[in-house]
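Tokens in:
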């Protein structure tokens, strides 16, 4: 019954073993990644860039700026290329392509002009994240392309326009809280501080909360099984990362307010 109700909001799965397999792989791997973050096994970036020190001398270390550009640029280029590879396939496809391209373009701009850095990133962490973003962006547009070429019936309940609104709320909220984080440090400062302003008084990772919101907006625009699987997996990963981040702040700052949750205000 739950599945039949869910299918009212989704295109039928396309006849593609690759897309179906990647849907499952994304959901499982991202969810597993979130559980690993909760257990203290972190992807090595941001404040956890040096969390795994085993054999660190043998690993290739990138500056945070270079690593972050590496993460987002291939996915941005995949979004740009999708306009040429799958042109004129209807409003839904164009909105999806635009949303994905805008998201990763924004991330590149933030890397260049907003974020401030204090650490590094190991290449063995950067590569899987880069591949995940690139493959997901490419597969999401390809899955949307299949809904057109295979003539799949439209979902009974159209979420495309509400999805645009949710996406815009997410991307603006994410940008605003990244801006607040960047203002915590003065020129030359590298130490971490307890973030303030915006929703930081309620959760320690409002930028993740809005990133999750943004991806649900993308899923609502797309309404494919693949986009939903990726979004649910991303939710679990970012919730796990937020939990680990709150735990880190509690360990570093005695005055960290205990009422500030990880990512969901008043709840978690």
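Residues out:
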């Amino acid at each position: 019954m739950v599945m039949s109700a869910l299918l009212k909001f989704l295109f039928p799965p396309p006849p593609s073993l690759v897309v179906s397999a990647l849907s499952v792989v994304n959901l499982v791997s991202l969810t597993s990644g979130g559980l690993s973050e909760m257990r203290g096994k972190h992807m090595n970036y941001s404040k956890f860039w040096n969390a795994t020190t085993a054999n660190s001398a043998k690993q290739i270390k990138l500056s945070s700026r270079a690593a972050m550009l590496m993460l987002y640029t291939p996915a941005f280029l995949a979004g740009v290329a999708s306009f040429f590879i799958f042109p004129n396939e209807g409003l839904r496809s164009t909105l999806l392509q635009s949303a994905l391209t805008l998201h990763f373009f924004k991330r590149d701009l933030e890397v260049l002009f907003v974020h401030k850095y204090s650490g590094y990133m190991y290449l063995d962490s950067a590569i899987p994240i880069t591949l995940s973003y690139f493959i997901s962006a490419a597969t999401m547009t390809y899955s949307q392309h299949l809904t057109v070429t295979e003539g799949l019936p439209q979902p009974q309940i159209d979420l495309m326009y509400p999805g645009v609104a949710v996406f815009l709320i997410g991307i603006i909220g994410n940008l605003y809280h990244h801006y607040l984080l960047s203002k915590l440090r003065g020129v030359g400062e590298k130490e971490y501080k307890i973030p303030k302003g915006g929703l930081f008084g309620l959760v320690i990772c409002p930028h993740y909360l809005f990133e999750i919101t943004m991806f649900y907006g993308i899923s609502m625009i797309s309404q494919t099984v693949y986009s939903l699987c990726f979004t649910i997996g991303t939710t679990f990963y970012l919730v796990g990362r937020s939990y680990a981040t709150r735990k880190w702040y509690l360990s570093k700052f005695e005055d960290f307010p205990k009422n500030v949750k990880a990512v969901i205000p008043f709840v978690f």
